[in-house]
Structures are given as C-alpha cells and as structure tokens.
C-alpha cells in the first residue's frame, strides 16, 4: 500500500488546520455582528425566519455549485436520511436557539455563556467518539469555563428566557459539532453533502412551523422591508449563514470538534470587547471584565497548545513505519 497520501496529509495538515480555524473565527465574528444588527437594531421580529433564509441560501448555493460541477456530493436517495440523522434536527435547533439568544442577550454576555459549549463538547467527544484529552488541555477548558462563570455572575441584565436559549444553544452546538465530525467520515456525503442535506431536509418543516406559530406572518408584514439597508443586512445574514456552516464543517474536518468550539470561543474576545463600546446594551463591571479576561486567556492557551504541538507518538510511529518499509523495499531491490 502506498504511503504518499499519508505523507501529503502530514505535510499540509498544520497549515490547513490553522487556516480553517481562522476562516471559522472570522465567519463566526461577522455573522454575530450582522445577526445582532438585523434582530436588535432593526428589530426584525422573527429569528426563525432569519434561520430559514440562511438554510435556503445554503441549499441554493450548493445546488448551483453541484450543477456547475464546482463541488461533488452524493445524489439524494433513501439512504441519505439514515446517513445524516440526527444532524438535521441538531442543525435547526442550533440555528433557532442561537438566533433567539442573540436577540435576547447583549453581545458580551452572549459570548460569555457560549463558553459552556466547550465543556459540553469535551464530554460528548469522550462519550461518543471515545476520545481522551491531555491534562493541560483539560485545565485550559476549565479555565475558560471558570472565567465565563465569573463574568456571568455580574450580569445586571439577567434574562431568564435569554439564558435558557443560550444554554440550549450550547448543548445543541456541542452535539452538532461532535456528530458532524463523526459524519464527515462518510465518503458518500462529504463536507458539501453534510451541509446540503442538513439544510434541505429541515427547511420545509421549519417553514411550516414558522407559519403555524405566526412567526412567518410577522416576518412578511415587517415594515422595514421597504428599507434598502435592512434588506441588504438581511441578505448578508443569509449568505453569512451558509459561510458560517461551511467554515464549521471545514474546521471540523481538519481539526477536532473540541478545537472548533474553542476557536469560536477565542474569536469571542473581539466580539466581547467590541460589544463594550458598540451596541449600547452592555453594562460594564470589573467582575465581568476580569471573567472575560480569564476566559479568553484559557482559550488562547488551548489554541497555542493545539496549533503548536509537536508530532504525537502516533505520528512518530508512522514515520518509523515508513522508514522501515522503505528500507525493506531497498533491500529487496538490491537482492534482485
């Protein structure tokens, strides 16, 4: 068996891991700001319909890319539902609770409480993917959660509904990340198939649910549809929804689900501190500021250890195996 693919993966893995992480961090930052503008600044009444717009955009973009043969993924058949379950359910739950919590909470508190996703992801990876973690990475995760708890303890704008949505969003995000990593191993679906069928399968039930609850009517009758600035922000949010989902899948493909989650947390250092000066809904306190700083230091520590780690024992073993095979091959040719 040829070892060239393994060699190529090892050569590019470090760069691809870093670039995919930066891509995800940038996408996550931008969509948080855009969603906050649509839902809070313009007071768009339906976070559910905003999620529907993002799903429809994902379907349209990937379908057009498949037709133009820019990307490839499995055609739809009855096996697709079994392959991708339960990702569609986690996908829509993650979208809905994420948009709802964005509307209810200030940007800094939103980013603080999102840190609990990291602990949940670590637990699910250990339980579902049977992964183990070095103690230093566990310590960095504990530092992140500890800082988040300190920061959240000073929230003077406590919102029970908002806190409920954000904690549910943490759980759904963790489960979605772990199962996405698991499903990416399916060669039939691949990165693009996971994205496409997630959105396609869930968009119609979500539209029906939105219509049943009256959410769709509120969105359609929203008075700011005549404003070009709102329409522009809404369309950007829809497009960024696709970009964010793609960046998450890409980052999960080259990294672990936990690393993808921590990258999102590190990104939040910019959102948190910008939110102190932009938006007008942040109530400053030194306790909150200290908690944010502790939380972000843990995230940066995790990122440093992850992206600057030396080759593991398994990598060294693979290199020794490759060397041994090369020597054996050379010996055979010399005998001939």
From TrEMBL:
Domain Sugar phosphate transporter, chain residue ranges per copy: 18-303
Membrane topology label: Multi-pass membrane protein
Residue ranges crossing the lipid bilayer per the database entry: 21-38, 44-65, 80-100, 112-130, 137-157, 163-180, 192-213, 225-250, 257-277, 283-304
GO CC terms, sorted: membrane
InterPro entries for the chain: Sugar_P_trans_dom, TPT_transporter
A Pfam family it matches: TPT
Keywords: Membrane, Transmembrane, Transmembrane helix
UniProt keyword ATP-binding, yes or no: no
Intracellular or extracellular location(s): Membrane
Name this protein carries in UniProt: Sugar phosphate transporter domain-containing protein
Organism annotation: Astatotilapia calliptera
